[in-house]
Amino acid sequence: MRGLEEERRYADRCRDALRAMIAGARQNVVVGEDTWGDRYTAERLGYHLKSLARELADEGDGPPFFGLVGYRDDEQAQEHRGQLYYLGRRHISDAIGRPPLVIDWRAPVATTFYRATAEDPQGIAVRRRFGWSGEKLTSLEDESLAGAEHTAEGGNEQERTDGSRSTGGVDGARGIGGILRAEIERPRVGPMRDIVATIQPEQDELVRAELAESICVQGAPGTGKTAVGLHRAAYLLYAYRSRLQRSGVLVLGPNQAFLQYISAVLPTLGEVDVEQTTIDQLLAVGIDATDLPEAAAVKHDARMAEVLRRVLYRRIGTPTEAVVVPDGSYRWRVNQYEFEQLVDEARAEATAYGVGRERVVSRLVAALQRQAETRGQNCNRVWQRRMARAVSPAVEAVWPVAKAAEVLAEFLSDPFRSEAGESNRDGGLSSEELAAIAWKRPRKAKSARWTAADAVLLDELAALIARGPGYGLVIVDEAQDLSPMQCRAIARRSEHGSLTVLGDLAQGTTAWAARSWAEQLTHLGKPDAEVVALTTGYRVPAAVVAMANRLLEVLAVEQAIDVPATRSFRSDGRLVVQRVDDLAGSCVDAARAALKEEGSIGVIAADHAVAGLTDVLRAEDLVADRLTVVPASLAKGLEYDHVIVVEPADVVEAEPRGMNRLYVVLTRAVSRLDVLHHRPLPIGLT
Ligand SMILES: Nc1ncnc2c1ncn2[C@@H]1O[C@H](COP(=O)(O)OP(=O)(O)OP(=O)(O)O)[C@@H](O)[C@H]1O
């Protein structure tokens, strides 16, 4: 095996090769521009070559590889016998026909790097991990899978602050090396990073699960759900590239702050063609009103699906007369009874409303055509189109064209009328529920002001009228917070695709948050998806995990959720719970102390307290790049090295699911957590 110096030379060689690849890609762009061919092909080729060139150029500076696997020199290694493979974020080669210098982490041969263990070495003799400081290769660490011994070389003093790291760092019990531990414990600054170098075996199983498998990951805070979801997207785009580029990949997150936080991960993995958005943005309806909680609860209820279906289909009437169409010297005719039958049939076929209507038109035309043909009429396309136009008023009278916004505006203007006689039936809404959603004044669709919940209803109606296209892969984060109706919107978009559901029932904070994955998966259209629990936390230190687990017990008792407790991977970290008289003053002191250490700082408080705290901290000049004041309602999914939680009782009281919110807030800390309280601590924290 090469020593550190030789590895550095190899890294230089890889960089040179990568530079040559970038130059080659740029040259291809130039050549591509001069290529003869039709404009479309030239444009597509140009686009492809340019994005390849850009993608390569973007990656020029990072470490060219992070690990290496050396296969055994015997038949257990099968076709890899005696081979060494360097693994990196992207494939690097210096000449066509020669083996690559670095293999993409997503290639099948890389799986052993993530999964081989001393018990199951999978043909591997040694696994090497590289430590980098910026662009410089500073250390390497070997793990022999034959005898499970570790050796290490290099590393600077700064990186070796504790005993386990300085030996190359092996955590004996778990077989975790120092480079790995240092990577996981590294301070966080800026947006989320990729974890390709340190994906853990249980995470890798999820990342590389087949595309056909829809999966649900129940993961306690910091267990890497989000990371797993994003790496899965990158992996599947590699393994099923052409299929997914055609059908599209969608990543759904809870809010803008979260999307911002994860936005860098996929691009660093070379994937830019992934739509990352929130459910509200996905539904693409301008939202300019808010619902009262009672109204939102009704609109998000699963029963609304049936209510809307009824409201829409109630527009279809019964024919009251025959359809008669003059055609030159003839008059073709479909009698009332036949027309009625056509409508009934189309309705019973249970396709989309718009499709059903089209069927009525085309079947009427077919009936006219049969008559015309017996008279020797030439029924070509033009004739058929003319007949379709001629029957249209009769069809419109019975099966009118429907627009989602008009149907919903009509319904919300007077839900009692639409639902008259339905309220006591199975699946109907009670009169209180109808009253909760009724608009105070009737409005037309054009002047309607829609809420976020209305957007979901509009989407349901639009799909009842005409089904839209879906995606090949949909990844939903924080899925416990979705309402049944939101789940249905996602189910429609992943009906023929693969779904990856990520969430934590204990972090459910919406009024409709799921209490069981089985039920949520049914709403998401994948009732058979396997639910896998991740329980090793890579963010939250042990002391904080212990406190969060106590809160989890309270949540489990109060809310009948069944969630396994977390176990922290991290041995470091600090928790200070302090009763103070002056919350703002103590927060200033805590912020000042926190800024003396490295990493990001999040001051998290109940939403209503944020403005006041921001003013106080700003007056002391403490709100900096590294320090952010975060409303509790926006903390989900985010993390900070140092978290200062101000008055937990206020966080709990601010909303019905306040205890869950507090659980989210407390588990944002990577290294240090200060809890400042004046009022008594909520139960579970005492
Ligand atoms: N295998 C790993 N190697 C290094 N870091 C990891 C690994 N797995 C997770 N992490 C880190 O742990 C932190 C938590 O990961 P992530 O945000 O994906 O967890 P999560 O389960 O989505 O958490 P939450 O539910 O609290 O939002 C991130 O900083 C992530 O980079």
UniProtKB/TrEMBL annotation:
- Entry's InterPro entries? DNA_helicase_UvrD/REP, P-loop_NTPase, UvrD-like_ATP-bd
Listed binding positions for ATP are: G219, A220, P221, G222, T223, G224, K225, T226
Q: What is this protein called?
A: Superfamily I DNA and RNA helicase-like protein
Q: Name one GO molecular function term.
A: 3'-5' DNA helicase activity
PROSITE patterns (alphabetical): UVRD_HELICASE_ATP_BIND (PS51198)
**Which UniProt keywords are listed?**
ATP-binding, Helicase, Hydrolase, Nucleotide-binding
Lineage, top ranks: Bacteria, Bacillati, Actinomycetota, Actinomycetes, Propionibacteriales
UvrD-like helicase ATP-binding domain: residues covered: 198-541
What processes does the entry annotate via GO biological process terms?
Answer: recombinational repair
Question: What Gene Ontology terms describe where this protein resides (cellular component)?
Answer: cytosol
Residue segments, region Disordered:
141-174
Signal sequence coordinates:
none
